[in-house]
Amino acid sequence: MKLIGMLDSPFVRRVAISLELLGVPFEHEAVSVFSTFARFQGINPVVKAPTLVCDDGELLMDSSLILQFMEATTARSLWPVEPAQLQHAFRAVGLALAACEKSVQLAYERNLRPLEAQYEPWIVRVTGQLLAAYAALEQEVAERPALFETVHCQATITAAVAWQFTQSMLATIVPAADHPHLVALSARLERTAAFQQYLPAGPGVPAV
Questions:
Q1: Domain termination residue (choose one: 77, 107, 136)
Q2: What is the distance between the alpha carbons of residues 10 and 207, in angstroms, rounded to a whole number?
Q3: Can you tell me the distance from the alpha carbon of 142 to that of 181, in angstroms, rounded to the nearest whole number?
Q4: What's the whole-number mean pLDDT along residues 183-198?
Q5: Could you tell me if 101 and 50 lie in one domain?
Q6: Is 94 inside any structural domain?
Q7: Is the pLDDT at 131 greater than 50, yes or no?
Q8: Where does residue 82 rank: exposed (0-12), middle (13-18), buried (19+ CB within 10 A)?
Q9: Whole-prediction pTM value?
Q10: Label partner for 77 (CA 20 to 30 A): which of 17, 32, 83, 90?
Q11: Nearest to residue 49, comparing CAs of 36, 157, 57, 126?
Q12: Does one domain contain both 58 and 25?
């Protein structure tokens, strides 16, 4: 089984760390959707990261679906069992994934689209969504510390991965000073073995 994609993608890194914590053996193949597009296309014509190449050669896409499949087939889980805690975890992961999505949109708009073609109302709208997602996620981490105590929890993993990605790309837009609990969570998780094993290495979004 192979995980295809660069670890500077929060979605790829989320899957890699999660598979490691689930104890699922896999091979990571660092292929970029930018600098090695043709190579990625040869693996998956859709060129979507992450891509999971299953043992029978079938391709799975989307980080959440990949992880749902792996948990279903291994009978292991990174989600709370108790219904109320599971609900809280779903909310936190939803916020973190929304923050990832908006961070990627802003990074692409700023770094890939020519300045004269950038649409300011769209940038303002996406920035507002990004800041709202992180404000709510910061509140979740502050008010529900027990949910984020262990690395073996999808809410913890996804929140920390999302925060690291946004800070690496958009630190001036999402100030660390306004999110002390996320800063502390990220610092703690980045020191763990699973996070250290899959550091966010890669070229990032290339400038035009």
A1: 77
A2: 19
A3: 6
A4: 98
A5: no
A6: yes
A7: yes
A8: exposed
A9: 0.95
A10: 32
A11: 36
A12: yes
